[in-house]
Amino acid sequence: MQYIIIIGAFQAVVALWLLQFRERKTSSNYLFIFLISAIAVHLTIKFVIFTFVPDQSIRLQMNTFISVCYGPLIYLYTLSKTQKGFSVGRKWYLFIPLFILMIAYFTVSCVFIILNRVDEKLLYLYNTFSLVLLFAINLYYPLKSILIINKSKTLERVEFNIIKRISVCILMMECILVFTKIALFFYPEKIQEINVLIRSVSYFLLLVICLLIIKKNINTELRKVPENNNKNTLGNADIDIDTETPFLNTMDYEVKFGELWQKMDEMVKQQQLFRNCDLNLDELASQTKINKYQISEMLNGYKNKPFYRYINEYRIEYFKNRVENTIQKNENINFLSLAYEAGFKSKSSFNRYFKEIIGKTPSEYYKTSLKNSLKLQVD
């Protein structure tokens, strides 16, 4: 069991290093940093106890307080990935059980040190209280996290997998608690063997959680490689992704993005998001609540057009409709005013994109439309 603890602690330190120094800092990443830190502290405490505490009852029975935060942390991570503008600070009360159990843990430890012996009744009382609290919290929050991600339609697959797998690991640890109580009821004389086995499995699951976070971090780093090699500016430039990569060629985009694209495209049209002259990929992601990398992949891989080409097509369509209405009403037309109204920021970009998309200059298009309108009136 001590070997598992040492390996788990080492894995936790590695994962902590990756999250702390290699990955971009966001509130959700800090939650994983806290989770890994909690696992590292948990396993370190256990290693110290198994190495330096001779009393068998403390080594095998006294629960560590820090594991009560595992469920709340994965729940907060889930909310940060599924709710726009989520603030961790609003959920501070989720950690009240951690502080309560921490106070109880150190209080009981100090009593044992002062008495210079283990009070079995006090140990039993602490273990019973901590087990109930651990079971309730680490059962409720992982289950709730799984329900949330199953309902979410915009969560990335990599985030869905990491949340689900960590939640399952935490739930398995709680199922082990129930199994322990049942086993001890039938075989009370084998309390030591059962405790060693059960705790070994629990520590192994903590090791698995560390490995899952390391794997997720490595996958994130690998995904950044092609992004960094491609043009990826979010100001007034387009985002281009190499559509010749084998990954994109073999992906079934219709299955992956059909529904999500329809949702985004409808919002762009119905809410006329394109009329915002400062609209960029970040702003579109914020308005539609769709990850910006998903939007980029949909545009470049699924629709084969960069971001600003997509937005400017809607702006030009809007401009054309306004031109048609102006001609029908026989009103004077101001090209630049309509261009600004459609969402263009400058005359040069309007003329350039209009010529590129329509194949004519705005004035040529207007003359053609006016000529066709007069022809229809004569006919």
Give the CA-based shape: rod-shaped
Query: Mind summarizing the main beta sheet?
Result: none
* Gyration radius, rounded: 30 Å
Distance between the termini: 92 Å
Q: Give the topology string: H per helix, E per strand.
A: HHHHHHHHHHHHHHHH
Assembly state: single chain
Which percent band covers the strand fraction? under 5%
Number of beta strands:
0
| Average pLDDT figure | 78
Enumerate how many helices there are, as a single number. 16
User: Percent of residues in helical segments?
Assistant: over 70%
- The secondary-structure class comes to mainly alpha
| Parts with pLDDT < 50 across at least 5 consecutive residues | 21-25, 224-251
Report on the architecture of this protein:
- By secondary structure, this protein is an all-alpha fold.
- It contains 16 helices and no strands.
- It is rod-shaped and about 105 Å long.
- About 9% of the residues have low confidence.
Give a concise summary.
This protein is mainly α. Helix content is 76%, strand content 0%.
Map the helices and strands.
Elements: H1 2-22, H2 27-52, H3 56-61, H4 70-82, H5 96-115, H6 120-151, H7 157-186, H8 191-229, H9 246-250, H10 253-270, H11 281-288, H12 292-302, H13 307-328, H14 335-342, H15 347-358, H16 362-378
Helix pairs in contact: 1-2, 1-8, 2-4, 2-8, 4-6, 4-7, 5-6, 6-7, 7-8, 10-12, 13-14, 13-15, 13-16
